[in-house]
Q: What sequence folds into this?
């Protein structure tokens, strides 16, 4: 029995023991390898000594004398610790405020009856519909008017409320039996105590799914911070990398670009490889973002 | 009672009388006040950056304005007609349509292939899924930095390994006829693994016994794909098409890093045009008019996306 047969032994969808699905599988394996080539090149080019010369830059075979020179150069040219700090502040700041806003709003939608509930619900839905990325021009104007141009707060603010997060928490809270809250109520727990001690702890999987989606998307965000931030020392990783790439491209220092890129994407990639399952299920959930 | 073990607790029975105290409130304003207070933090930010922004786009589109200060001159629909008459805008719209179709079809097709091949969970398929999913996680800016070298003429990865087989080495990002396709490759590479996830989720809803029965009845793999799997995946398809189209309009970071819309506007996309008008030409009126037109065009699509969502909630 070949390896392929063993893989297909209890394949779902009754596709086992037939040649066509196997062809599809082989094709997928080949494409997955193709998909990895940019990452492979990034790793190889990062470790390739500049003395190998420009012509060998495209070699996917690792150099026999790997070096960290490129990493050192990238570290010196771009202010990566600063960029990383800025990105971390942005992502953490957004997430902290979002946790508060989506918990409160999610609870209101899940558990309270109030006048105009449907209308307000549709107002929230509208955020999903309006595609926030397209509203960069009016939002930049507003951020400038609020005196937040060129500040990290200005980068964060438009994302403090999240319709997607609110819906996610509403769903999570609705799944919690009301008997739990009633018991706490009889024990004299106030509204915030009930949220804090019953709803929040029981909804941790939803919070972590939301955290993964929120951090990933804001870690990777480029256009909005590019517009809001002017000072070099306030640049997040993505904006920093684009400036760095433009500089290094001029000097054709591709090994340095590879090293810089590696530094930017490594934190998320490592986190993903550790929490793979959780990432993937969060992204499936996020289809409604 | 331990809150740490929710699974052990009885699920609320809808037929049983509910003690829930909050239901005692009628729905007058005073009774609704706690809910309003809980919604207030979210509503403030939504009002500022979503509804307010929408309103400002509408107003800004009617004024000629070259600074972030108050509107200066009412020009009615002049901005709209100026945008519609601007070949750079119409070109960007055409590019964006080509880009949307040219990225959605291949990436969705590949995503379906990947999902069908990797539906079963084991060590190997998990690793393959991870490999295909990696590009989703990295910033478009980083992907662009990598692909800049891949597309570099002569010495880049593509020419080094494959380009040498061609009679003429193309300048992938420098040739107006090729640059848009080159940009599309990055998008396909980056999104196929994302759409794969939705197909994988959709495949779990395909009833195994129906597949088994069809197999016993002698239906081949293509027949089963055609008559059982694809109909079952229809809501997923609609959903992914909507996401792919929205992505085509909202993902432009690679245009910034790689081509700046060039050469000869061949890779200019609508959002990049909006950015150019606002940030490079300080023409807020024109930028707002372009935003308004784009938003209007997306409205129908997003309405569809909600219908799709509703279907999804009812189904798998």
A:
């Amino acid at each position: 029995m070949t390896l392929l047969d063993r893989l297909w032994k209890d394949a779902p969808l009754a596709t086992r023991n037939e040649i066509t699905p196997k062809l599809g599988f082989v094709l997928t394996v080949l494409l997955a390898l193709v998909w990895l080539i940019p990452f492979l090149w990034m790793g190889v080019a990062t470790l390739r000594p500049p003395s190998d010369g420009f012509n060998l830059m495209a070699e996917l075979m690792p150099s026999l004398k790997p070096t960290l020179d490129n990493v050192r150069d990238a570290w010196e040219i771009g202010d990566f610790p600063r960029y990383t700090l800025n990105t971390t502040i942005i992502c953490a700041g957004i997430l902290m405020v979002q946790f508060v806003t989506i918990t409160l709003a999610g609870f209101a939608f899940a558990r309270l009856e109030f006048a105009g509930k449907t209308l307000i619900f549709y107002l929230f839905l509208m955020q999903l519909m309006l595609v926030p990325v397209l509203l960069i021009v009016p939002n930049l104007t507003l951020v400038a008017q609020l005196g937040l141009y060129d500040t990290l707060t200005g980068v964060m603010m438009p994302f403090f409320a999240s319709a997607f997060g609110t819906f996610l928490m509403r769903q999570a809270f609705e799944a919690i039996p009301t008997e739990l809250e009633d018991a706490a109520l009889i024990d004299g727990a106030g509204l915030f105590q009930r949220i804090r001690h019953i709803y929040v702890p029981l909804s941790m999987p939803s919070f972590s799914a939301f955290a993964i989606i929120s951090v990933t998307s804001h870690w990777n965000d480029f256009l909005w911070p590019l517009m809001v931030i002017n000072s070099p020392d306030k640049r997040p990783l993505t904006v920093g990398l684009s400036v760095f790439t433009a500089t290094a491209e001029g000097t054709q220092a591709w090994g340095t670009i590879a090293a810089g890129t590696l530094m930017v994407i490594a934190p998320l990639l490592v986190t993903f490889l550790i929490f793979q399952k959780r990432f993937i299920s969060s992204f499936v959930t996020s289809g409604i973002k | 009672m331990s809150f740490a073990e929710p699974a052990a607790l009885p699920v609320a029975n809808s037929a049983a009388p509910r003690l829930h105290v909050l239901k005692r409130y009628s729905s007058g304003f005073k009774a609704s006040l706690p809910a309003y207070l809980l919604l207030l933090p979210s509503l403030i930010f939504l009002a500022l950056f979503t509804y307010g922004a929408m309103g400002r786009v509408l107003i800004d589109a009617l004024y000629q304005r070259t600074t972030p200060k108050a509107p200066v001159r009412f020009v009615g629909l002049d901005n709209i007609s100026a945008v519609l008459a601007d070949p750079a805008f119409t070109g960007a719209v055409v590019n964006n349509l080509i880009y949307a179709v040219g990225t959605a079809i291949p990436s969705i097709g590949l995503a379906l292939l990947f999902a069908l091949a990797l539906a079963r969970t084991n060590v190997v398929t998990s690793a393959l899924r991870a490999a295909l999913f990696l590009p989703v996680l990295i910033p478009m800016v980083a992907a662009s930095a990598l692909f800049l070298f891949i597309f570099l003429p002569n010495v880049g990865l593509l020419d080094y390994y494959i380009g040498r087989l061609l009679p003429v080495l193309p300048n992938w990002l420098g040739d107006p006829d090729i640059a848009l396709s080159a940009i599309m490759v990055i998008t396909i590479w980056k999104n196929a693994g994302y759409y794969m996830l939705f197909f994988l989720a959709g495949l779990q809803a395909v009833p195994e016994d129906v597949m088994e029965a069809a197999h016993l009845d002698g239906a081949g793999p293509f027949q089963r794909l055609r008559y059982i799997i694809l109909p079952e995946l229809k809501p997923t398809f609609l959903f992914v098409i909507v996401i792919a189209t929205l992505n085509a309009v909202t993902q432009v970071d690679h245009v910034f890093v790689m081509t700046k819309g060039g050469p000869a506007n061949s890779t200019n996309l609508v959002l990049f045009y909006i950015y150019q008008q606002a940030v490079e030409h300080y023409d807020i009126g024109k930028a707002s008019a372009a935003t308004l037109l784009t938003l209007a065009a997306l409205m129908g699509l997003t309405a569809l996306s909600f219908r799709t969502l509703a279907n999804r909630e009812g189904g798998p």
Q: What stands out?
A: The CA atoms of residues 128 and 286 of chain A lie 12 Å apart.
